Input
Amino acid sequence: MSIFPSCHIYYFSGTGNALNVSQWMQKIGNDKGIPTQLIDIGKIEDRLHQSVIESSLIGFVAPTHGFNFPPIMLHFILRFPRAKSNRVFIMNTRAGMKAGKLFLPGVSGLTQFLAAGILKFKGYKVIAMVPVDLPSNWISLHPGLKNEVVESIYLKQHARINKIGPLIFDGKKNYRAVYDIIQDLIIAPIGIGYYFVGRFLIAKSFIASSACNHCNICIKNCPVKAIKEVNSKPFWTYRCESCMRCMNSCPKRAIETVHGFFAAILILANMVVGYNFYQNISIQSISINGLPGFLNQVLGFIVTSFIYFLLFFSSYFILHFLLKFRWFEKLVLLTSFTHYKFWRRYNSMVFKNKGIVP
Output
């Protein structure tokens, strides 16, 4: 007889990787006679089902965004009720790749350790911390992987979870994430920068081209309600988690990342931040007499971040206005890698009929 009477798995998923892992774990739990329920945190908003806390085993599954859990999952864990003798497992999907026959793991950064620390503080017993190297889906930075590569990665990780999962449901400990602690600590500062600055800037790198047929699939399916309609076009707000669901599910491939425009604004922002005022004092070296050096560095970071936000926020409105001119849209698309056919989209459900995904 299992030591767990029930299990609830809270998940967040953009393109389906974390959802598939959650469904694999659900099947394993149910096969072992443990009623296992999946809960999409993107659909319950701020409402926590207090009855779920009665479950003796709780899972948290989400992708890795900027070397951390997506803010929606991180904030959810922060709001989660305190423990009542519950045990917890944490799984994060991270950017798995492949070079020839060699499978390349992703990097978790703060993802596992920050979540585990919060849950431990709340009184939970963390029995498993397991990263899952499913295909990288961040197609703003690289083309989607080829189908055969995606299939091979999925087969490998599916088999791995089928070995690990039953042990977790038996209450056995698995701290695989700890093996990567050195590289994760090295990359952790980038995760902090992404949380406070990077994610807001990246949110302003998406547009819908004139290929958009106003089906509103992107608006309806956005898991964090970050897309709204402005001037009859999808408009990405700062709520965007860069989960890539919109870009990968658009039937017209109308959603693009404006690489060229984004680079131009970044260069302009750097010019403004680095502009020398009087006596060769730049914004980057701004300081207040009497403040310790560390606090002056923090002050400089706040000021420069404000300038970046101001430029990107204002430029995004200008971009949307100018996109109504065909010549400008053509220029933007010519400098956007996602516009070209070789820049593949990513779909984790392409192998559903093969039984690789539930």
Notes: The longest strand covers residues 125-132. The domain at 7-187 is CATH 3.40.50.360 (Rossmann fold). The two ends are 26 Å apart (CA to CA).
